[in-house]
Protein: Reverse transcriptase Ty1/copia-type domain-containing protein
Amino acid sequence: MQEELNNFTRNEVWVLEERPKDKNIIGTKWVFRNKQDEHGVVVRNKARLVAKGFAQVEGLDFGETFAPVARLEAILILLTYSSHHKIKLYQMDVKSAFLNGYINELVYVDQPPGFEDPRKPNHVYRLHKALYGLKQAPRAWYECLRDFLIMQGFKIGKVDMTLFTKNVNGDLFICQIYVDDIIFGCTNEKLSHEFGRSREFEMSMIGELNFFLGFQIKQRSTQEVQDG
Structure:
């Protein structure tokens, strides 16, 4: 729980202010879950502070909420395409991804249960960035990541808005996003490693793609296939 709140501080998510009299104050709660690997082994215990989005008022606390999400068929097409063109795929998991997205609305939330400031118990937090549970949070994160990729020279897909591509001196770089997971690869593997070392976002995991959306994925080189 403290680690989660440390992420808030590093990302400058909010600021503590006096409780406004004429604003909607959204409650917060803790959500706990175990993250498992492809073998069902618990690899990490996660605590996440989320906003009670059901208390939001449309037009006041949020406006546009739509955020594109990759379809399963698109992921399978990407895997097939990458296999055909011998592109090794990698995966990045952005740590507390939604905390990177800026919001346009004026939103206030209660202090985290169990972590109220003893000197200012009646104060509330004004959000600068999105909080998990907010209706506009997925859109805010998507726009944040989209803008970053476009600045890096990627072009957004005309049909699939979660697919980004870039041509680098004849080498094809592909990047597929699924909420806070990023799948990427390039015909020049050196460029993949350079992209993986990006420090724009804090990563909780990065490595070769081997487990995604319940699928176990085995990537083999041409020599391994020939050796059978």
Remarks:
- The CA atoms of residues 185 and 193 lie 9 Å apart.
- The helical segments are 2-10, 72-84, 137-151, 189-196, 222-227.
